[in-house]
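Quick one: structure for this chain?
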Amino acid sequence: MVRAHSLLPIAVALIAVPAHAREAAVKVDVSAGRLDEAVRVLGRQSGASIGFRDTGLGGTRVRAVRGTMTAHRALGEMLRKTALRARKVAPNTFLIEAGPPAPRPASRPASSPPRAREPAAAPMPPPREIVVTGTKRDVPLGAYPGGVQIVDGGELSTADAARGSGAIATRLASVVSTHLGPGRNKLFIRGIADSSFVGPTQATVGQYWGNSRITYSAPDPSLRLYDVRSIEVLEGPQGTLYGAGSLGGVVRVVPHSPDLDSVGGSAWGGVQAVKSGQPGVDGGGILNLPIVEDRLGFRALAFGSIEGGYINDTGRDLKNVNDVKTIGGRAALRFDPGDGWMADLNAVGQRIDGDDSQYAARGRDGLSRSSTIAQPYRNDFWLADLVVRKAWDQLELTSSLGYTRQYVFEQFEGAELSEPFNPAKSPLADAAPVEFSQKNHIEMVTAETRLARRGRNGRGWLIGASFLHNEARVNREMIATYYGSPLTGVRNRVEELTIYGEGTVEPVPRLTVTMGGRFTHSRLTGDSEDVGYDLALSADPLARDARKETRFLPSAAVAYRPMDELTLFARYQQGFRPGGISVRREFIQRFKGDRVSTYEGGARYLDANFEMEGTASYSRWRNIQADLIDGFGFPTTVNVGDGRVLSLGLSSRWRPLAGLELDAAVYLNDSKVSQPSELALTISRETLVSLSAMADNAADVSASDFERLPNIADVSARFGISYQHALTDTLDFDARGYLRYVGKSTLGVGPILGQLQGDYVDTGLEFRLGNRARGLSLAFFNLFDGRGNRFALGSPFLVRDRNQITPLQPRTVRLGFDLSF
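Got it. Here's what it folds into:
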């Protein structure tokens, strides 16, 4: 375990990079697209302050710019073929404005010489404008009344992108993840966490790929982050704009769209060495092809990787058993017929195969365990969507249709049940180990149409309507030595019809007020799988009945800007999840919908070289949906009671010199189940007795065993550094590093799952030498080679033994290359 006194050497090492940068030229890589997005990217890459007073210019389409050049030259290239110009108003500071009209030839000589004009004082430009697109109406970051974190896709190296959602959690201290393995994890934001398992519950975080939702009652697919434009994390709840399942917030990844102007592409590859583990390899490529210039374009991406295993299984005398293989790709078609219309057709596919689970036994070397069988897993993910937009000056109409399919397979080691369909019989005390498997099939269809108007200082409005259909089927099986036996499964269907709206006004200068609401009508149905209804429904005869839920989610926010750089804000928001049915032993039973109400306040400071944001929030959580362990060892979803969450967050970013950027963040969380439900207490007592584990203490189960919500560290913090320097006109040097601390948390709710985890440090360092066209990189992860305990679960059937940990991947070195044209 790495403690705080061990952090100083790495912090010093990360800071000890060259402290000067040549302003004359920097590496620039800005894709074609909207002006506001292009300016944000160029500002980060060059360290220049770039702004525009007329927010209506933000939607202007600009050209791609790539190469080593000054910020002024890059702006000139970007604005070519537009009616705009970039005017230098101070050192390294530029104002974008409408260009002067073309001079008209004089029809006759002037009757008198023109008077000399007084030189106009150069106006100071506004702070570099960053736009929050996750608001669905492009609100400037300085005017957004809530907590938000934005990662520029250009900051992600190919080594980062290969880590999928792990790269998001590494960069943002407000985001945490479980660690069952890529494709089986769940993301959490701001202390709102329910359980560690993949089951019938809806996620607490809404995940979006572009305009489409990618999860509902499914795990995080950990889509690889190659070729993305930005990642936005809006702290929750976000019920007004995103509806059910955004209790903790929203993670929105925006991929690059096809460039309609130029042919281009890239390729990359890398090899990695893992200390005490198997080597790995990754690679991929991108092709952008304009089919009809300025009208129709195509963009495709393909990638694959093998992550070397590092867990040894002494029971089977095998080493490095937990290899993970990933393959996937994307394809996009963009059509621009003109007159403000735009249509995008996208397809995404990815498959993750894990050869074995990545947990180890506590008290050994931290990288080994003893098992009798392999415990593989798999995640297949598919997405197809169509997005059509129409823009009229400040108005934009967006309509989308998406289809998502996900298949998750998991296999666990467990003990044989004496009578699988007899609820009075439990796992045999001396039973031979057997295979338990679980298959999740999830399909989702979403459709949304919205009309938004953008105005100055965040003013504007949004109205929309949406439809969602999600069907999730869970099948379970026990495979003993001589037979296979299906166990009770469950199927949940949810249909949601929604109308929503939000508007922002400015009653007095510098003060904006935002009001919104969402009206959702849900229809929920469910039934059992593989086992007869009489047995499955015997615990809850009404579980199979269709239910309807109607929810209204109000929201309100206020923002005050005493100065251009500073925003003070307060917000009230609600979020909810509908109910469903889950399996408890061999029965199915209902669980209710839950609701979160959050009060938030904070401040944000933005200027060209320094950014800081601080937030504080208090959340009340009613009828919390969470997972407990049932008498067979499977997780089962119940309403564990009511609770509250307190959260404090502070993040900052400083650019002391051109090319040098430092960032730091710390988040504090305190969560508690204030009123455990009687059902949760009863299930815990029954489970302790039926599993013959701690049976003597079963009667002692009380509310104190349910105090903490799972997986949210009491403290999480990050320090990062980025440095870019042009060594010559054709050779650049980049360096990035981070140090992240994850504090203590618990595995789950209740006496069995209330095991401590966390309290570890993760680090990374990467160097790149090259230019836009080609480069070599060297990356290091887990520099201290710490073990830690990221997530103390391998098999839910063995968790009662309290002997499982999930260590960090040992120290890893990756050597990579990248090419582009």
